[in-house]
Write a structure and sequence with these properties.
- The chain has about 375 residues and is mainly β.
- The protein folds into three domains: about 40 residues, no CATH class; about 150 residues, Sandwich (Immunoglobulin-like); about 150 residues, Cupredoxins -  blue copper proteins (Immunoglobulin-like, Sandwich), CATH 2.60.40.420.
- About 15% of the residues lie in helices and about 35% in strands.
- The protein has five helices and 22 strands.
- Strand 10 and strand 11 form a beta hairpin.
- Helix 1 runs antiparallel to helix 2.
- The N terminus is likely disordered.
- It binds copper (II) ion (CU).
């Protein structure tokens, strides 16, 4: 929720003088206060990005995020990023492979980080070795098809798109080449997230600045791997044949796999996420195609921004948070106890039978003020 008043403008106007100009300014400020401050409809259109400084952002594979400042320094910038469409066979679970469509080779695609009023300047490459048209619909962007029409590239082409990050939050981006190819490409892995931070950083439930110690990106992916009538995965030789088979298997609306970060077990065991007791961890959680719900066993969402939109006051203490299809959520949890935590889809069938779960290994000293085993297991007395 937006604050209804700007305390600064009231204080400024207490310093009333006889100066006519100052009185006029104060009248304007009072009017702004009474009207509740700026609105989402008050877009600033005075900068098209042509003369801003460019900064290259090196994208990395999830669950990690690229390097970024939590509080923006200086003026708005143009963030240069490059995404390359890669069509490649990946193993989703032992013995089950799919022709994945990816950006930069990972499922999900990399997180792009910017601040509000920055511009993102994307170079999208579609190597000649690919077989498909690809493009990107940025949910963070303003304009026709989220940039999808302006980024459609054939194999062997590249294209550049610049868009302004007008509103803060975490947003999904995904390939959307048209018609039935949209769900085929999205469920073949071609989706990721962008995080647009407020320039002054994140605010807690009281409006105070909150900084996080580390950040992870976890995306749930539903796959519809073509199977024969006995339920065995069909081996498919080419991306074109895969597209034809997926056109049928998607219509079952029954995923064969529901996994985090592209592969069953991608964030388990030796690939578990890590944190230390006392650290505040930002989790970006997304689902590009299907409604889901995330839950951190043994912890909570201390702060939860529904839909991942940072202009709204975060909720506190959530046990499970919803992520509707085509969106991302943001949560911060401060780990108070060591141990192995599980972050999962709390449809427990989808978590434990299909693979939608991750681990976070948290190191540090046990604090028995939170939890203590009072007696070891023993025969019932
Ligand atoms: Cu695509």
């Amino acid at each position: 929720m937006k604050s209804k008043k700007k305390p600064g403008c009231i204080n400024a106007c207490k310093k009333v003088t006889t100066n006519v100009v100052v009185v006029a300014i104060c009248a304007t400020l009072f009017a702004a206060c009474r009207n509740g401050g700026s609105s989402v409809f008050d877009d600033k259109k005075n900068e098209d990005g042509d003369h801003l400084q460019h900064v290259a952002e090196q994208l990395v594979a999830p669950p990690m995020l690229p390097e970024f400042d939590q509080v923006a320094e200086g003026n708005a910038k143009v963030i240069d990023v490059t995404l390359t469409a890669e069509e490649k066979k990946i193993e989703v679970a032992p013995g089950d492979s799919i022709w994945a469509f990816t950006f930069n080779g990972s499922v999900p695609a990399p997180v792009i980080v910017a601040h509000q009023n920055d511009f993102v300047e994307l170079t999208l490459r579609n190597p000649a070795t690919n077989t498909q048209q690809h493009n990107i619909d940025f949910h963070a962007a303003t304009g026709g098809m989220g940039g999808g029409d302006l980024t459609l590239v054939n194999p062997g082409q590249e294209v550049k798109l610049r868009f302004k990050c007008t509103r803060p939050g975490v947003f999904v981006y995904h390939c959307a080449p048209g018609g039935t190819m949209v769900p085929i490409h999205v469920t073949a892995g071609m989706n990721g997230a962008i995080m647009v931070l407020p320039r002054s950083g994140l605010k807690d439930e009281n409006g105070n600045t909150v900084k996080f110690d580390r950040a992870y990106y976890i995306a749930e992916q539903d796959f519809y791997i073509p199977q024969d009538k006995d339920g065995k995965t069909i081996s498919i030789a080419t991306p074109q044949q895969s597209v034809q088979a997926l056109d049928e298997s998607l219509k079952t609306l029954k995923p064969t796999h529901i996994v985090f970060n592209g592969k069953k077990g991608a964030l388990l065991g030796k690939n578990a996420l890590t944190a230390k007791v006392g650290e505040k961890v930002l989790f970006i959680t997304s689902q590009a195609n299907r409604d889901t719900r995330f839950h951190l066993i043994g912890g909570h969402a201390d702060l939860y921004w529904p839909g991942g939109k940072f202009n709204n006051k975060p909720y506190t203490d959530f046990e499970t948070w919803a992520v509707p299809a085509g969106s991302a959520a943001a949560t911060i949890y401060q780990f108070r106890e060591p141990g192995t935590y599980v972050l999962l889809n709390h449809n427990l069938i989808e978590a434990f039978d299909y693979g939608a779960l991750a681990q976070i290994k948290v190191s540090g000293a046990w604090d028995s003020t939170y939890m203590k085993q009072m007696e070891k297991p023993s025969p019932i007395k």
